[in-house]
Amino acid sequence: MYALIGALAVACVFGLIAVSDDSSAMSFDLKGDDFAKAESSVSFTLEYDGTVSGYKYTSKLVDGNGKDMSAVTSGSTGTIYSTSGEKSITVKAPKANGDYRLIVTITDADGKFLAERVAPIRSVDPIVLSATLKNDADAERVITVYFYVNGEKIEDSKQADVVIPAKGTKTITYDYLVRDVTNTTFYLVSDDSTMAGQVSGLGPEHSHKFYVEQNSYTLIEIIAVITLVIIIALAVYVYRKPVKNYGKPKARR
To answer: What value does the mean pLDDT of the chain take?
Structure first.
């Protein structure tokens, strides 16, 4: 009996018997878009790669101070299985613009902590891009257009069946989420050059500029400096101003 136990111990030491470690054989990943329009729904996916089923998870969206925003609309809690391998989590981006974090905590069936995954999300107000197209033909034109920002096609900006009346105009708008403030020009392109032949306002030769309000404290700092200078100037003026002795009796001769 003792000889068998000793042999097993030696085998484990020298790696002759593999000892299973479930924690090292599993992995979790949290994926989703890190930009969102304020008050819109954003989808994230919790991916699981492993053989053990029945792990639990909880999710929450927090602000920069760690405050729970109560913004997870679906998938706040659940069980993840090896057969499906992923779970969907939907978050409503807060109205207040800023940076937030989606935190997902994974535990085993007994509540023992296994892992935590964090995904950033920035809630922003979109910039409305607007361009007007003109139809010079005697008949209306029906086209499909895309917005291009700095020469890059924005896939989800597609607008199909845009009707431009004969000898008329049509204004196209798109809510653009600014990720890079260096992108400051845009234009419209039709996916049907034949139908758009008599429509003016298309292509890079009709580029438009837009401006992004950057979150910068430069203006605040300038105002603060100017205010400080004014206060100092007033203080110096009051200090050096001569004092008149009103009501003081004249010196006797």
So the answer is: 81
DSSP strand pairing (113-124 vs 35-37): parallel
CA–CA gap between residue 13 and residue 174 (Å, rounded):
65
Query: Is the model's pLDDT at 90 over the cut of 60?
Result: yes
pLDDT in tens, 22-68: 445 689 999 999 989 999 999 999 999 988 889 999 999 999 999 99
d(CA 147, CA 157): 6
Radius of gyration from C-alpha coordinates of the chain: 33
SS (H, E, C) the chain: CHHHHHHHHHHHHCCCCCCCCHHHHCEEEEEECCEEECCCEEEEEEEEECCCCCEEEEEEEECCCCCECCCEEECCEEEECCCCCEEEEEEECCCCCEEEEEEEEEECCCCCEEEEEEEEEEEECCEEEEEEEEECCCCCEEEEEEEEECCEECHHHCEEEEEECCCCEEEEEEEECCCCCCCCEEEEEECCCCCCCCEECECHHHCEECCCCCCCCHHHHHHHHHHHHHHHHHHHHHHHCCCCCCCCCCCCC
Q: How far apart are CA 167 and CA 162, in angstroms?
A: 15
| Residue showing tokens 């930009």 | 35
Look up the pTM and report it. Answer: 0.62
128: tokens are: 């409305």
